[in-house]
Please model this.
Amino acid sequence: MPRTALHTQLNRVQTFLAVVDFGSFTKAADFLGISKAMASQHVKALEQALGVTLLARSTRAIAPTETGQSFYEDFKVIVSDVEGAFASVLHRHNGLSGKLRISTTGEYGERFILPLIPLFAARYPALSLSYDTDSSLSDLIAERLDLVVRLGALPDSNLRSRQLAEYDIVVVAAPAFLARHAIERPEALTETPWIANSNLQGPTAWTLHSAQAGSASVVGRVAYQSNASHAIRAMACAGLGVAVLPAWLVEQDLADGTLRRVLPDYSLPRQPISVVYPNSNHVPRKTRVFIDFLCEHLGR
Model:
């Protein structure tokens, strides 16, 4: 392939990767600074040059074909390696620079991550940081994030992860609620109104452990639900039901009596805190540095 043709094809590949990342010709074109028509022309020309269909197009969605997905995964590795090589050269000559894009859950980030940002910024002043909250794992690629901090068990994926620490979760309820609902054994939780976390597949299915009584599995009745821990906490404080929440989120509520532990002789499995990042042969140095920084300050 002539050198000029290779340059042209690489531009077309870049457009194809962006279309898959964003799931949209319009968003990909905006990101690349070209017109939607030009983005479409790039992908069509690439398909013609390869003699295959890379994208399945419909009025509702754009998705890679099986061949397109393989092509995408191969070139994402190549692009990541190229970006990593640039980053390594820049670091050797100019120190750590560029933009680091991270995301965490709102509550955990506010409590643990944000207080560390000034220290990290002082250590790496040439590196800017973009902080988002509550991004999904699919956003890790689509939004071009460098890493996501997630709480709880991770779903199977082709992403890489590193565990930072673990945290306790507790079953809690307001005193007024407990005055109306006697919960003296785990079995009582099956008929008790729950405030569920809709992020979880089985938000009211738990196995409680007691050193004296052994283990007991329960499935509660969902009366209210939310995808945000602070909203679940607020509903629990209002006496709407029992809830499972991070111990660090409700420690003050437990201390001042706003909430109480339900069945305090029982415990729930500790949950992992993980850093998730793209699966690449070459992890950018800025990502590795921030992960090491988090492990230094939050790891246990």
Observations:
- The longest strand covers residues 160-167.
- The chain has three domains: 3-76, 95-160+273-298, 169-269.
- The chain has a mean pLDDT of 88.
- The longest helix spans residues 66-94.
